[in-house]
Amino acid sequence: MSLSIGIVGLPNVGKSTLFNALTRAQNAQAANYPFCTIEPNKATVPVPDQRVDALSAKVSPKKTVYASVDFTDIAGLVRGASKGEGLGNQFLATIRDCAAIVHVVRCFEDENITHVDGLVDPLRDMETVETELLLADMQTVEKRLEKTRKTAKGDKGAKAAADILETLLAWLDAGNPAAAFTPPDNEPFRAVWRELGLVTAKPVIYCANIDEAALPEGNAHAAALREAASRSNAGFTRVCAKLEEELQGLPDGEQKDLLLSYGIRESGLAGIIRAGYATLGLCSFFTAGPDEVRAWTIRKGWKAQRAAGVIHTDFERGFVRAEVISFDDYMSRTGESACRADGVLRTEGRDYAVRDGDVMHFLFNV
Hints:
three-stranded mixed sheet, 12 strands, 39% helix, 19% strand, alpha/beta
């Protein structure tokens, strides 16, 4: 299970610059004009995790595998995108499968960088993009409603689903995101809901792109965006895309020194991923041995048997028990044998709720 994030925003807000920096893959052309990204860019990047580094240093495995994040960057959305203006709406389908949306909003002034609406106004920009996403979702629901109506005659389930789709369409038309809509307990509609993949149903993380002068405290633009994010119960993070780009290519030590010189301790990548994990309720457990140290991503509260399935379906199907050591206990002892001798290696059953940082070994029988 990997975290998938779609990056949206107006043109010229720093999306492609941020994408380049976050993915360390300079395959999203960044330029001072709108629509320079004309193909959806995708990349998979490792999740920075000091616990993985520590486990790897302790165990010295043949291979170290971090958890991963899939980033998808689409062309900038503009007012009227849902009606064919600009290019971004062509690529909305590429983020329908993403688990969360990072909405990059320009929160810096720079007369040398063109703004599509002339002046920097984060709340206006946020509303423009949200409106286009909402209109795109309305089009999706309208198409599905038309299809469902055709099969509704003589089919009570389809008729009920069509009625709910009409309610959903009215909800969206009133300016409400799909995330605030509560799908009724109706199996035919639940199947339709999953297939719709509505963009406004996804958790949002607002990303304020600031300049170096606003590090580390932010500025008035970023503060206004944070407040708006709080009102909508969305995630929030602050990055300086320009600084993130400068970090790339530097050794780890120099990266840390540069970040500290601005009064910050983590990169924009780490901040976005942390916000993504918090917004989606994710955590990580680890497996460690001479062959491999690996981080695995699951949702908080998952039981041991379900978590085992992330490694392999056979682990879940034939689950017998799990041997569990907390990260701190593992690191404070010489190895697994010492953990067992000291009684900090626990045997847990299928209903054990996995905790963030658990080091686990699964026993199964298929």
